[in-house]
Write a structure and sequence with these properties.
It is built from 24 helices and 27 strands. It has 801 residues and is of the alpha/beta class. Strands 2-1-5-4-3 form a five-stranded antiparallel sheet. It has a five-stranded antiparallel sheet with strand order 7-6-10-9-8, sandwiched between helices. Strands 12-14-15-17-16 form a five-stranded mixed sheet, sandwiched between helices. Helix 17 links the parallel strand 20 and strand 21. Helix 11 runs parallel beside helix 12. The radius of gyration is 47 Å and the shape is elongated. The chain binds adenosine-5'-diphosphate. Adenosine-5'-diphosphate binds next to helix 12, helix 13 and helix 14.
């Protein structure tokens, strides 16, 4: 059974051959020109296009081989049937209407048909027609999906399309369905008989039916339409989401004649996507809650601990007897120990939550290295291990990066080095590492001559909770988190970390950091006023002696070395005789427990020799020996090790009488009260208030205090301040809101520098402060060096800084 169809498009232009042309077909009566007829008959039969001859009543009176093949129906079943009978019932009226228009106006192309035989459907196009003789008309039929000459392909194609799971349909340019495969029947619920001839708009949701979708209009105009998703309505009123791709079908001249649509049901996929999106949103929300919780804990845990540490630091700067000093020291180191554990756990959970933030700010790596070494040496307590530090001169003065994080990694490595060494030195070195073809990097090394690490575990110790030797952990303590966190931090800062070690031969832990935008000019030598000063270094140990010499020489001093007590006296006396006595002898007193040189003897010999009275003395002592030496030795100054270049120079400047290095930062020489200006500290925690006030007073500031943001806003309105130090987390009104409020009240002429202070270490902290209108961001606990830097930037006018 064949159904062929035609939907005639009456709007097409008149383009057929002129009516009344002499073309004939195999009609019963032949023309006189029998020979010509033979040609025409042969031509008709062998034409590649299918040709159908219809009479005025639309009855099929003849058709050629191509048409018979295309329609897959024996000729006898076609002859005498009316054109509309080739069409499915839904299209018949349109065929009749189209025919009438054709008779009225003539007709060129744009007729489509679906047909089926043995269950398959396809789409053919009826193009061109002419009135071939009085009462007869010629239609050309062609397969619009595949070439008419490749019947097997066309058949396969139509079967494939029909069987396709996707809904395949063809629609006329005026919006009527011409073809409808089984996939379409399944997806939309309409059978082919129900769908064909109906407006395709019935598939649209009711509210969209008034106007054809923009994609359809594009396809009708012949424009390319990218695959899109849309909602369609099935026969039983269900909404389905479909991915649609539209292709325009054009005639030989390229004019659009119909549009084929392939629609795929993506409702399930969409639902799965929506479920996934909801799950993702939920996960993000949960993770935000988690980081909020961590942030809260962060603040709650660190605030009181900062208080304990800060207050014990202040207490250490007061008059204390020896025992009190020891108690306070124990108090502070316990606080710092607890802080280290809290920080390790907080860091670890921040890394776990993917919350690791790295700040970018200028910092002074020399100060950092010295401070880290001091902290580590102090923490080592009675250990005989000495910590030495050297920053190569070519390392830039100010680096860009996350000072806190660098400090944390270096403290961990240096702390481990001391912990896993019994005696000897731990040497911290910073240098610029240049490698061919790569950007130069900062390389920080911590070298110890301790127990060393077996090569088989050298990689594993950078993983969480791993310790090289389980039995060691009992002996040395530790969480096994330190190196894992260090690795995460260094990686986050764009560097690398590693170790070179052999059991029994000590270890060198190193890490690199990109120098990035740091100003690569090395710092100008400090304390030029010390240049030419003649200094003797008395030190039995070559490593530390040479290091001291390097430090002093880089400050342009004239340095000589002595290894023993006797050498020292000999060299100093000779210098006096030459008329160029030493201004200073620096005596490195190694831990008394292992020392071969006794500084007390030497200084005693110097004091009793009138020739050496002009030579000042400085003893460098291990932290544990400080109190004993202070009581027993007659010296101009006693400096607790470790000493780096910066501290060494300022101590020398002090003892020589050229003033101290950095007055503002010097707790023992407070600047004149109020001389530096007037600042406001907005801080709710009384302990933090005390620490911040004291640090600022030591720097010569007059300090007013606000207990919350609201008070800060009011006080700022009452009088001008040189700066406001604003805690971010406060009751009543937090630092962010207070800053916004303050900025609202200011104009271009009045801008008070506001420095954010926060104990939180979450990503985006500093951006949040800046967004609220603050100028600088400072982490807690406040470090004197960091505070000095901020004061210089924020408060001192450029010419004074
Ligand atoms: P912990 O808190 O246990 O010290 P780390 O992650 O810092 O954790 O170190 C992991 C392990 O690596 C240590 O337990 C120790 O076995 C080994 N280790 C680290 N540094 C050194 C070192 N300088 N010398 C010898 N072993 C070390």
């Amino acid at each position: 059974m064949v159904i062929a169809v035609a939907a005639l498009q009456s709007s097409t232009a008149l383009q057929g051959p002129p009516a009344g042309s002499t073309t004939t077909s195999s009609l019963p009566e032949r023309t006189d020109d029998a020979r010509r007829s033979e040609y025409l008959i042969a031509g008709f039969e062998s034409c590649r296009d299918g040709l159908i001859v219809l009479d005025d009543e639309r009855r099929c009176v003849d058709l050629n081989r191509a048409a018979r093949e295309l329609l897959h129906t024996p000729e006898v079943q076609l002859l005498g049937r009316k054109l509309e009978e080739f069409a499915p019932p839904g299209l018949r009226t349109r065929v009749v209407e189209g025919w009438a228009a054709f008779l009225r106006e003539g007709f060129s192309s744009g007729v489509f048909a679906t047909f089926s035989d043995d269950g398959s459907r396809g789409v053919v196009e009826f193009t061109g027609s002419a009135r071939v003789a009085a009462g007869y008309h010629l239609l050309a039929v062609r397969d619009i999906i595949t070439s008419p000459t490749r019947q097997p392909t066309r058949r396969t194609m139509s079967v494939l399309l029909d069987r396709s799971d996707d809904a395949v349909s063809v629609c006329s340019l005026d919006g009527f369905l011409l073809s409808w495969n089984r996939g379409a029947e399944r997806l939309f619920g309409y059978t082919a008989e129900e769908a064909i001839g109906k407006p395709v708009a019935m598939l649209l949701p009711p509210e969209e039916r008034a106007r054809p979708p923009i994609e359809w209009e594009q396809a009708w105009r012949g424009e390319e339409v990218p695959t899109y998703e849309a909602t369609r309505v099935t026969k039983d009123g269900r909404s389905v989401v479909v991915a649609v791709s539209l292709s325009t079908i054009a005639d030989q001249s390229g004019r659009p004649t119909a549009v084929a649509a392939i629609a795929r049901d993506v409702t399930e996929q969409k639902r799965a996507q929506a479920t996934l999106a909801a799950a993702h949103a939920k996960a993000v929300e949960t993770s935000q809650l988690k980081s909020q919780f961590v942030a809260n804990m962060n603040h709650e845990l660190r605030t009181p601990l900062n208080g304990v540490i800060g207050i014990s630091r202040l207490l250490e700067d007061t008059e204390l007897d020896h025992q009190q000093r020891e108690y306070v020291h124990a108090l502070r180191s316990s606080g710092e120990g607890l802080m280290a554990v809290v920080e390790a756990i907080l860091d670890f959970s921040a890394i776990e939550a993917g919350n690791l933030a790295v700040a970018e700010a200028p910092y002074d790596v020399r100060t950092l290295v010295e401070e880290v070494c001091s902290v580590v040496a102090l923490a080592a307590g009675g250990s005989t291990v000495e910590v030495l530090a050297y920053v190569e001169p070519e390392v830039p003065a100010i680096l860009q990066g996350d000072e806190q994080r660098v400090r944390q990694v270096l403290t961990n490595l240096a702390g481990n080095a001391v912990k896993f060494s019994r005696e000897g030195d731990v040497f911290v070195n910073a240098a610029v590492l240049e490698r061919a073809g790569l950007e130069p990097v900062l390389r920080l090394e911590v070298i110890d001559n301790g127990i060393g690490i077996d090569p088989s575990v050298q990689e594993a110790i950078f993983e969480s909770f791993v310790q090289a030797d389980g039995s060691m952990s009992r002996r040395f303590g530790g969480s096994g988190l330190g190196l894992a966190i260090a690795k995460e931090l260094v990686t986050a800062m764009g560097g690398e970390i590693g170790v070179d070690s052999a059991p029994g031969e000590g270890s060198t832990f190193w890490f690199t950091l990109p120098l990035g935008d740091s100003d690569v000019t090395p710092p100008a030598p400090l304390h030029m006023e010390l240049g030419d000063l003649r200094v003797l270094v008395v030190d039995t140990k070559a490593t530390s002696r040479q290091l001291l010499v390097r430090h002093l020489e880089s400050a342009m001093m004239r340095v000589e070395e002595a290894e023993t007590h006797a050498d020292a006296l000999r060299v100093m006396r000779a210098a006096v005789q030459d008329g160029d006595p030493f201004a200073l002898a620096i005596i490195d007193q190694h831990p008394l427990a292992v020392a071969t040189l006794d500084a007390a003897d030497l200084t005693h010999a110097m004091v009793t020799d009138p020739a050496l009275r002009t030579t000042r003395t400085m003893i460098l002592a291990a932290p544990a020996d400080g109190p004993i030496l202070a009581a027993a030795v007659d010296t101009d100054t006693l400096v607790i090790k470790p000493v780096g270049g910066i501290r060494l120079r300022s101590e020398i400047a002090r003892v020589i009488g050229n003033g101290s290095g950095n007055q503002a930062a010097d707790a023992h020489n407070p600047a004149l009260p109020g001389s530096a200006g007037r600042v406001l500290v907005a801080e709710d925690n009384p302990v933090n208030q005390l620490v911040t006030i004291r640090l600022l007073e030591l720097r010569g500031f007059q300090v007013d205090v606000a207990n919350n943001g609201l008070e800060a806003v009011e006080m700022h309105a009452e009088r001008p301040y040189d700066a406001i130090f604003m805690d971010c987390q406060m009751p009543e009104m937090d630092g962010y809101d207070a800053t916004r409020e303050i900025r609202r009240g200011e104009d271009a002429l009045r801008h008070t520098p506001i420095i954010a202070m926060t104990a939180s270490t979450l990503p985006g902290d500093s951006q949040r402060s800046i967004a609220a209108g603050m100028d600088y961001h400072m982490g807690k606990p406040i470090r004197p060096a960091g505070l000095d830097y901020i004061i210089n930037q924020a408060i001192r006018p450029p010419e004074e800084s």
